[in-house]
Amino acid sequence: MGVPQYDDLMNPTIQALKNLGGQAHIRSIEKEVAKLLQLSEKDKSDIHRGTTTKLVYRLAWSRNYLKRFGLLDKVNRGVWRLTPAGEQATAIDKEEIKKVVKKAFDYSEESEDDIIEVEEVDEESSDENEDIISPFDPKDIKIIVEPKTIDHLVTRLRYNEIDLNTEFQRKGNLWKPDVQSRLIESILLRLPLPAFYFDAADENKWLVVDGLQRLWSIKNFIVNSEINDSENPALELN
Predict the structure, then answer these.
(1) What does pTM read for this prediction?
(2) In angstroms, rounded to a whole number, what is the distance separating the alpha carbons of residues 175 and 220?
(3) Angle between helices 112-131 and 54-69 (to 10 degrees)
(4) How does pLDDT run across 94-122, given as a tens digit for each residue?
(5) What is the rounded CA–CA span in Å between residue 82 and residue 203?
(6) DSSP labels for 159-209?
(7) Number of Cβ within a 10 Å radius of residue 104
(8) How confident is the model over 201-218, as pLDDT tens digits?
(9) Which of 25, 27, 119, 233 is the most buried (most CB within 10 A)?
């Protein structure tokens, strides 16, 4: 069915928050909306720009309008809740919301794409600053540089010892097959790769800090291929 436009996501956003108890993180809202709309994995991973999916982008626009109309409120970074008006709302009129918001905030169809890009970035940046009470002490961070082979990473991926779905990362597995293929080709040609960064506080479960899409490409090419081969063994011809 594809990802609906932002105005068609307004009612699902309200319903998703009601299902989640009236307050939730944007990732939980995203999952609940996708569930309500029965979006396919392809729909959920469809890219808008860069690494931002259409679902994430359009939900951001939907929240933007609902907030300005007085139905949603932002609690802190990434966490939204229904206002009393939002809690009482059953079915909302998206056309009325767009009309009121655009008139009050001087939105125009031509400028919408630029507005949301700037506002979402500025909003996240300001939230991060608000969360910092005092500067961190660099002495508390222990950085270890260790050369690791692709085989070592594959082994950890094979035994689920690398967390590819951390809360602080965007979605993984967003690269298209041709991009993943170019990475694998680079590995086969023994070309140097950019460094991978992990939070290895838990030796049994590394958290990916940088290199998520590359790790997904390696997992798809090697680990997932092994699983598919074992589930669909080749026929032996006598």
Answers:
(1) 0.49
(2) 11
(3) 80
(4) 999 988 888 776 554 434 443 444 344 33
(5) 40
(6) TT-EES--TTS--S--S-HHHHHHHHHHHHTT---PPPEEE-SSTTSEEEE
(7) 10
(8) 888 899 998 899 999 999
(9) 25
Tokens read off for 37 = 């709309």
Interstrand relation of 79-82 and 206-210 (parallel, antiparallel or unpaired): unpaired
**Nearest Cα residue to 61 out of 107, 2, 1:** 107
Structure tokens at 161: 């010892």
Question: If we measure between CA atoms, which residue out of 96, 16, 95 comes closest to residue 63?
Answer: 16
Q: For residues 80 and 53, give the distance between their C-alpha atoms in angstroms, rounded to a whole number.
A: 19
- Position 105: which residue type? F
- Most distant pair of Cα atoms in the chain: their distance: 76
177 CB burial (10 A radius; 0-12, 13-18, 19+): exposed
